[in-house]
Amino acid sequence: MAEITIYHNPACGTSRNTLAMLRSSGVEPEVIEYLKTPPTKAKLKELIAAMGIPVRALLREKGTPYAELHLDDPKWTDDELLDCMLVHPILINRPIVVTPLGTKLCRPSEAVLEILPASKLSPFTKEDGEVVVDDGVRHV
């Protein structure tokens, strides 16, 4: 089975749903609880580049010190924002999933289907009861 990694926060419903979808596809991913084992600055840069998103797009506001650190101020450079994420890993939005088909911030959780190297999955029911139907289309 192809190597898949999820940067996971078990306290996050979206992260739990994403992990459950991966497992229901027959994959047992490498699970990195990034609050316990934060990625290095180099790894964060690598993940952001692979996702093709700006650094700010990876910042989480809710339930974090985002507001008290005034991270909405455009004065912050990408490098400074990365440093803040290293000091406060809760600022890193999640879950991030890495597969052979790509790297993606999986919000909503069904976004993982776009990079899942598996055949079409059976419908999946999220924790809140929402049913996710896999259209079988994979994006590279």
Description:
This protein has three helices and six strands; from the N terminus they run E-H-E-H-H-E-E-E-E. The strands form two sheets. Strands 2-1-3-4 form a four-stranded mixed beta sheet. Strands 5-6 form a two-stranded antiparallel ribbon. The radius of gyration is 15 Å and the shape is globular. Helix content is 24%, strand content 14%. It is of the alpha+beta class and 140 residues long. The mean pLDDT is 93. It has a single domain, classed as Glutaredoxin (3-Layer(aba) Sandwich).
Q: CA-to-CA gap between the ends?
A: 18 Å
The shape, in one word, is globular
CATH architecture: 3-Layer(aba) Sandwich
CATH superfamily: Glutaredoxin
Category from helices, strands and their pairing: alpha+beta
The gyration radius over C-alpha positions equals 15 Å
The proportion of strand residues reads 5-15%
CATH class: Alpha Beta
The H/E string reads: EHEHHEEEE
The overall number of domains is 1
Note the main sheet: 4 strands, mixed
What's the arrangement of strands in the largest beta sheet?
A: 2-1-3-4
